Amino acid sequence: MEFSADANVLYGNACDVEVTRVGKATEVRFAADPHGGPECLWFCFRVRRLEASSTNSVRLVLKHFGNLLGGSDLEKMRPVVRYDSGDWERLDPGVRMELPDGRVQGVWDVDAPETFFDAALCYPYGRAEVDRLVRDAAGYWRKDTIGVSQAGRPLVRLSNDPGAPGCARAGLYLVARQHSGETPGSWVLDGFLRRMAEFGDEAPLIWAIPLSNIDGVEQGDYGKDNFPYDLNRAWSHPPMRHETHVFGADVRGWSNRCRPVLGIDFHAPGGCESDGVYTHVPDPKAYPEMHTAVSEWAEAIKADLTRLYAAEDFGRVAKYASRWETPSFTKFFCATFEKPALTLETPYATCGETLMTCDSYRDVGARLAETIAGRLGAADDGGVS
Which of 3.40.630.10, 3.40.50.300, 3.30.590.10, 3.30.200.20 would CATH assign to domain 127-379? Predict the structure, then answer.
């Protein structure tokens, strides 16, 4: 066989892998591995050329498309590839292939590699990208290890100031990648932090956890509802995971060293959602005051994201069934500090007609930073507090 394929790469995820010759074409058939959880979506793997040949294309075939979270419209799933460790690029929309019994597979034809190419659901983001962000900010962001994950990996927090007990500076607490495969959240946070660094001392005090579920990130887990407990449903008292034990202590420490204003949790939605960026707001019947407070932020953010990125239905009350009854980060934050917190959902591939690149995600984050900085500036004149 001229090619091989496997998930033996950083963030690797693929299973049920077959490499086969179909006429003059090579097919790499694969499935997204749930890695022990009830949901699957993330995939990341490498295709290697084993010998010289005249083959100039490879067909990627995603099996079990209907089993993916949000696996509804194949044309809205646009994976990424990179050749020989070069830059990542988007693939064209997939072709729907329906099997005789009605099951659906996704097909993408790509150029064959000289040596290898990597394929993934979306642009990966990990420790190397966090380090690049810190370097590019030239000392603005301090990087601290505040604890370890359940598997013993460092839990990293970025901050622009340690604050001080009783400090009145407006404060933000940010988390990303509680669901480890939701890489758009990290890219948006990256753009947010880069823009905030440009405000210098005028920025609010910010503590951010860029890779919350670091075990899942590096193991290639999708991470949504993974056992033993979804990280974003482990914010109970006592915490249901060691990571939320660490983060809970950290956010309480943060709250004593600033004036808490807002919490943000960066996510990505179902695999084929494409309406645009949106946020979850509290149920107005159950939490009327907090619904109003979060909705005010949501309306301002939507206005600044404009039609380029924002979904028309921007501030949504979550109505999907949850496997867990324990609190999310936003519920924990609102209940603990009586301050608003929101979840930002950014699609994997497109926001309406906008095809999302790494720069597009960063632009979403930069616009979000400008909205928040502007509203906090107005706070001194009687605005948001």
Answer: 3.40.630.10
User: Above pLDDT 90, what percent of the chain?
Assistant: 90
How confident is the model over 123-155, as pLDDT tens digits?
999 999 999 999 999 999 999 999 999 999 999
Neighbours of 127 (CB within 10 A): 16
pLDDT digits (tens, 9 = 90+) for 253-310: 999 999 999 999 999 999 999 999 999 999 999 899 999 999 999 999 999 998 899 9
Cβ atoms of residues 221 and 35 within 8 Å:
yes
Q: For residues 377 and 375, give the distance between their C-alpha atoms in angstroms, rounded to a whole number.
A: 5
Q: Judging by DSSP bridges, how do beta strands 341-345 and 259-267 pair with one another?
A: parallel
Q: How far apart are CA 203 and CA 227, in angstroms?
A: 38
Q: How far apart are CA 282 and CA 264, in angstroms?
A: 14
List residues bridging with 262 in a β-sheet: 172
Query: Which residues are CB-neighbours of 306 under 8 A, at least 6 positions away?
Result: none
- 2 within 8 A of 50, measured Cβ to Cβ: yes
Q: Give the CATH class of 3-120.
A: mainly beta
Is 337 within 8 Å of 255 (Cβ atoms)? yes
Residues 195-212: b if buried by 16+ CB within 10 A, e if exposed: bbbeeeeebbbbbbbbbb
Nearest-5° Cα angle at 303, 207 to 201:
35
| Number of residues assigned to the chain | 385
Tokens of 320: 């999907």
Listed by start position, the domains of the chain span 3-120, 127-379
Tokens of 367: 């616009």
**Rounded Cα–Cα distance for residues 26 and 20 (Å):** 6
Q: How many CB atoms lie within 10 A of CB 228?
A: 9
